[in-house]
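[step 3/7] fold_predict: job queued, chain A
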Amino acid sequence: MFGTESSLSMFLNTLTPKFYVALTGTSSLISGLILIFEWWYFRKYGTSFIEQVSVSHLRPLLGGVDSSSPSNSNTSNGEADSNRQSVSECKVWRNPLNLFRGAEYNRYTWVTGREPLTYYDMNLSAQDHQTFFTCDSDHLRPADAIMQKAWRERNPQARISAAHEALELEDCATAYILLAEEEATTIMEAERLFKQALKAGEGCYRRSQQLQHHGTQYEAQHSELCVFQLMKEFPLLSMFNIHENLLESLLELQNYADVQAVLAKYDDISLPKSATICYTAALLKARAVSDKFSPEAASRRGLSTAEMNAVEAIHRAVEFNPHVPKYLLEMKSLILPPEHILKRGDSEAIAYAFFHLQHWKRVEGALNLLHCTWEGTFRMIPYPLEKGHLFYPYPICTETADRELLPMFHEVSVYPKKELPFFILFTAGLCSFTAMLALLTHQFPELMGVFAKAFLSTLFAPLNFIMEKVESILPSSLWHQLTRI
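[step 4/7] structure written:
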């Protein structure tokens, strides 16, 4: 033992300052090359090479399973190219699944004392009401003239009073709509008022047919109102996305064949996407494999074709709107959805999850498959704000728009920023440290040599202490035989 210690001491004393300069310089060069390679690999594949090797090769040997490893998804060039036909990045859309304001939003305010809708959101709704529930000939009909003023009134009680005043004059469809939106306190009551509005609209249409030959003035009044009623009953799909209501209704009926038929029509490369379309498509593909899916089995045998299709569909949906999974997996609390949404934003994610969480829960294993695979999207797309995989790069303006649409008490979800892996940060720190040592050793070789000897002596001090204790305990003859071995 003492011979070994003396040999080590003699070796350290024979080292010249040039040795320490060469040692630190070589260490700095090696760590720098590792850092450059790690950074290149991260830029290209979105993950650390060292981390990837440890996850792919070392963890299975230790018995671990990576449940969120990404699948190799083939890019659909046709879909990616057609998505270049984009509209305004932060265009606000009316929520096709919005609740009835009186039946749910006001009741929420009564119970919690908090406003679920922002002023910006309600102002957009007021503009929608004026656009679709008023027309130029309203002044020719007393009830509609009252309603024209009612839709522009900012005081909710004044609007409701005006609607009742209009109903005293005649059976006015728009008055029933206003009451259903703002006075009804239950969904059943709102449904009853909407049915009355539909009945009043149908009666108006029949009268317009009877009076169409009674003169130009009557025909102008009633034909314009007829067109207005048809707009209310059959809004443009591009404006209200009625097919999303149809998808939700068919899912509620568990009529998956018809859901697939609707998706085949509207999940087209030439049509704008939505969270409802992308995540419903993912749900249907997950439904085919989720009941038997096991992360452990998949890691051993690899993904089957059906499982690969389901994972790719989930990656596609997450790339379109990355905020949805946390709500579906109940990692973040849901709130009442706003009346307007921003596609690919947190507001759209809330609106989708609020109505579709039950459909994901109904499909056995679907949420488990989503939990195991959704984060792999961010490894496939290292820089989603700069370059997308199947869609346009994620718009950076969504956070600002969502803050206008969502109430203050809600923490707005933002796109997960890609953080540098630990090994890149560690390698960068190691490279900087060794470069600093190399520079100091070059400038002060003798002083750094003293520090190096003192450091090595301190490093080996615990080992020397342990060896001395072992030598004092064991018999000298036995210790002599062990040192010879």
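[step 5/7] annotate
Residues 56 and 232 are 57 Å apart (CA to CA).
The chain is about 70% helix and 0% strand.
exit 0
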